[in-house]
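Pasting as-is:
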Amino acid sequence: MINMTLLRIDDKAIMGLRVELPDSPPLLMVIGHTGFVMCGFLNMDTAEKMNVAAAMVSGVRNFDDILGAEIKAATSKAQIKGIRLGMKGKEAIKLLL
Protein backbone atom coordinates (compact mmCIF):
# COMPACT_ATOMS: atom_id res chain seq x y z
CA MET A 1 0.00 0.00 0.00
CA ILE A 2 1.15 3.53 -0.81
CA ASN A 3 0.06 6.29 1.56
CA MET A 4 0.51 10.02 1.00
CA THR A 5 -0.01 12.27 4.03
CA LEU A 6 -0.09 16.05 4.23
CA LEU A 7 2.23 17.19 7.01
CA ARG A 8 2.69 20.69 8.45
CA ILE A 9 5.93 22.27 9.61
CA ASP A 10 5.80 25.90 10.71
CA ASP A 11 2.42 26.35 8.96
CA LYS A 12 3.86 25.10 5.66
CA ALA A 13 2.44 22.05 3.92
CA ILE A 14 4.75 19.22 2.95
CA MET A 15 4.04 15.73 1.68
CA GLY A 16 4.87 12.50 3.47
CA LEU A 17 5.14 9.34 1.37
CA ARG A 18 4.97 5.89 2.96
CA VAL A 19 5.23 2.65 0.99
CA GLU A 20 4.44 -0.55 2.88
CA LEU A 21 6.71 -3.40 1.82
CA PRO A 22 6.34 -7.13 2.53
CA ASP A 23 8.43 -8.43 5.45
CA SER A 24 10.23 -5.10 5.67
CA PRO A 25 10.15 -1.70 7.32
CA PRO A 26 8.35 0.90 5.18
CA LEU A 27 9.97 3.13 2.57
CA LEU A 28 9.53 6.72 3.78
CA MET A 29 10.07 10.21 2.34
CA VAL A 30 9.20 13.69 3.52
CA ILE A 31 9.05 15.96 0.49
CA GLY A 32 9.65 19.71 0.65
CA HIS A 33 9.31 22.23 -2.16
CA THR A 34 12.98 22.07 -3.20
CA GLY A 35 14.08 18.60 -2.03
CA PHE A 36 13.37 15.70 0.29
CA VAL A 37 14.49 13.70 3.30
CA MET A 38 14.43 9.96 2.71
CA CYS A 39 14.93 6.74 4.59
CA GLY A 40 17.92 4.51 3.97
CA PHE A 41 16.13 2.47 1.29
CA LEU A 42 16.78 5.16 -1.28
CA ASN A 43 20.16 5.51 -2.94
CA MET A 44 22.26 8.58 -2.15
CA ASP A 45 24.65 8.00 -5.06
CA THR A 46 21.72 8.10 -7.48
CA ALA A 47 20.30 11.22 -5.80
CA GLU A 48 23.70 12.90 -6.21
CA LYS A 49 23.93 11.89 -9.88
CA MET A 50 20.40 13.24 -10.47
CA ASN A 51 21.50 16.57 -8.89
CA VAL A 52 18.65 16.70 -6.39
CA ALA A 53 18.61 18.14 -2.87
CA ALA A 54 18.22 14.99 -0.78
CA ALA A 55 19.16 13.99 2.74
CA MET A 56 19.03 10.52 4.28
CA VAL A 57 18.10 9.26 7.73
CA SER A 58 18.08 5.66 8.93
CA GLY A 59 16.26 3.47 11.41
CA VAL A 60 12.92 5.20 10.90
CA ARG A 61 9.42 3.70 10.79
CA ASN A 62 7.18 6.79 10.55
CA PHE A 63 7.20 10.49 9.69
CA ASP A 64 7.82 11.59 13.28
CA ASP A 65 10.90 9.35 13.30
CA ILE A 66 12.17 11.08 10.14
CA LEU A 67 11.69 14.52 11.65
CA GLY A 68 13.51 13.51 14.84
CA ALA A 69 16.32 11.46 13.28
CA GLU A 70 19.80 12.75 12.54
CA ILE A 71 20.83 13.31 8.94
CA LYS A 72 23.33 10.60 7.98
CA ALA A 73 24.05 11.73 4.40
CA ALA A 74 23.23 14.66 2.13
CA THR A 75 23.78 15.40 -1.53
CA SER A 76 25.98 18.33 -2.49
CA LYS A 77 22.87 20.26 -3.59
CA ALA A 78 21.32 19.69 -0.13
CA GLN A 79 24.55 20.83 1.52
CA ILE A 80 24.48 24.06 -0.50
CA LYS A 81 21.02 24.66 1.00
CA GLY A 82 22.55 24.35 4.48
CA ILE A 83 21.82 20.71 5.34
CA ARG A 84 24.55 19.19 7.48
CA LEU A 85 25.25 15.73 8.86
CA GLY A 86 23.91 15.33 12.39
CA MET A 87 21.15 17.93 12.10
CA LYS A 88 17.59 16.70 12.75
CA GLY A 89 15.33 15.79 9.86
CA LYS A 90 12.89 18.55 10.81
CA GLU A 91 15.61 21.19 10.53
CA ALA A 92 16.69 19.76 7.17
CA ILE A 93 13.13 19.82 5.81
CA LYS A 94 12.76 23.45 6.93
CA LEU A 95 15.70 24.26 4.65
CA LEU A 96 13.86 22.56 1.77
CA LEU A 97 10.64 24.53 2.15
